[in-house]
Amino acid sequence: MPDDDRVDRKKPLVTVIPFGQTPVIAAKVIAAHISGYLNMDAETLPSMPIPPDALDGERLQYNAARIIETLEAADMTNAFKIVALFDVDLFIPLFTHVFGEARQNGRVAAISLYRLSIHADGSCPPSDRILERAAKIALHEMGHLLNLLHCADPLCLMNFSDTVDNLDQTPFNFCRYCRRSLHRALASP
Amino acid sequence: MQIMIVDDERIIRESFFHWFQKSGHTVETAASGAEALDKLTQAPFDLLFVDIKMPGMDGIELLAAVKERYPETLVVIITAYGSIESAVNAMKIGATDYLVKPFKPDQLSLVMEKVAQHQKRSSEYNYLKGRLEKITRFDNIIGQSAAMTAVFEMIAEVADSDASVLLAGETGTGKELIARAIHAKSPRANLPFIAINCGAIPDTLLESELFGHQKGAYTGATHDRKGFLEVVGGGTLFLDEVGEISPKMQVDLLRVLEDKTVTRVGSRRPVSVDFRLVTATSRDLDAQIDAGHFREDFYYRINVIQIDIPPLRQRKADIQLLADHFLKKLCHETTKRVDRISPRALQLLEAYDWPGNVRELENAIERAMVLSKSRMLDEADFAFLQPPGKAAAHGPALRDMEKHHILDILDQYGWNITQAAKALGINRVTLHKKIRRYQLKAGSRDNQ
Ligand SMILES: [Zn+2]
Ligand SMILES: [Zn+2]
Asked: Hey, are the CB atoms on B23 and A91 less than 8 Å from each other?
């Protein structure tokens, strides 16, 4: 059976975990996009409590860098990569807030729905729009976990989106260049 | 881009590091001003992010030290306390921008965009400048004559204003130097100075050089390109030989001067521009207007203030000064040692008419120096100059001028062939040949 080898070699597994009150549907949508666009296996786990030391008492926001450090140290499951999903406001010390955060070539990405749930004008978008944005952020952060850099092409998911408007204008698409880098990264995980 | 983050807080250094790493930049970090300066001696950096509050050397002190030693390196100041005063202070010392911690991600993107644009602009500017410097020559303006003192006073007077200046003077009088002096003394001194010789560039090329073009505007236009009117970015634009500009270009430029906008060739979108215009002409523009070659409305636009540059023959008091200056300069450029010009040679230089003005004087000194074997330039070294009074008033042919000149020298040396040949800078055989060719005889002048 010439195909046995390939069947035996499992696709790398990505684990998506909702934290706190984050709706499980969001985790499911993200998992579906990861397996669809990146051709990886993706699973979702039930909700987990937010690591208590992630809350910054002064800013009343959650420190994304600390969350990532905690989860990297936790030696969770057999996951190749972990996407942690939050509905609280995340920040890193430099910025007022972040939509998502991942270390270049790291193992854990943190994503927040908090700022994705508000239009630039303050009104609330329909929930499918929020899920779409979350999926885009997740694919972008997965790109970083797979060692991709920001991309200058505004029609590529690896372009750095600093506003929800920018994010909405970015299609579900990796440019040719980034797609090639993804293939290379996935060929030798 | 090579970026360095200077902050005493580890967590800030790390956040920056990760962010810039993700954007494909080369990032270094330093925990103190001293460490930053140390790293700067080891490698060049394009951009520094510097925290104001640090123990030891603070961010402002580091900024000042960096600007002094590495003026090309851009510095963005970071402050956690929202102290606008210190940020403004930093901008005065030369910071490119400042950010108040924590900032929105789009603020950082904006800063990076600004930096990238700045880099692009300065490289574009250097490219264009390099191209122009090949055409133009640099020097200082030199003069102590009354005529030049009046010009210097005019320069000082007009420099501060934004008014268009027209420099009128013969070829070789140093109009570009005057234009540079106006720029250097003006509030725009730190911005670009761009000089274009309109007479040296074909009309179609001049249009695209000045206005820029869109990709595909014509064959060979493979990229969008900014024209000098845009690139000059607040500086001074110097158009030499403005009398050579075609009537169509005069209309286009007139529009630019009125609207302060530019539309690239092949584009419809006007871009706003800012510059101070200095023009120069060696032609009589009034006569050009009468002849219908130059538009009167354009003339009044560019001639708000006119400075007349005197020809060298009207400022003979400057000749010695200029000659010494060129002598020193050329000695510096070549290995040749020539210390001075003899009084007799100077007399000859002062008697000469200098139709080519300062430029001709410089060429004459250079030519004399190259041929001279002594450390003093003497009369004979300038034998190639047309004798005074025999200047090209009636436009005699070159051969006639040479004939007269040789005859003069022969008469002067009482037909001593050896001495005359030496004075002419040619050997005796050549002189004999020339005597034969021109059928020269002692006293033959009377028969002319
Ligand atoms: Zn990113
Ligand atoms: Zn891309």
From this structure: no
The shortest CB-CB distance from A96 to any of B9, B22, B102 is to B102
Q: Is the ipTM of this complex over 0.90?
A: no
Is residue B350 a contact partner of residue B318, using CB atoms and an 8 Å limit? no
The chain B residue lying nearest A140, using CA atoms, is: B22
- Total number of residues shown for chain A: 189
The 10s digit of each residue's pLDDT in B48-87 is 999 998 999 999 999 999 998 988 899 999 987 667 778 7
Q: Which of A91, A93, A98 sits opposite B12 (nearest CB)?
A: A93
Residue A117 carries which DSSP code?
G
Active site residue A141: yes
> Residues B424-434: pLDDT tens digits?
877 787 788 88
Taken in order of first residue, the domains within chain B and their CATH numbers are: 1-128 (3.40.50.2300), 137-306 (3.40.50.300), 310-383 (1.10.8.60), 396-436 (1.10.10.60)
pLDDT-derived band at B133 (thresholds 50, 70, 90) equals very low
Q: Please give the angle made by the CA atoms of A87, A182 and A139, to the nearest 5 degrees.
A: 15
> Do B408 and B424 form a contact (C-beta atoms < 8 A)?
no
Give the ranges where B23-104 is alpha helix by DSSP (H). Answer: 33-42, 59-69, 84-93
**To the nearest whole angstrom, how far is the Cα of B169 from the nearest Cα of chain A?**
52
Q: Which CATH architecture has domain A13-187?
A: 3-Layer(aba) Sandwich (3.40)
- pTM of the predicted protein model: 0.53
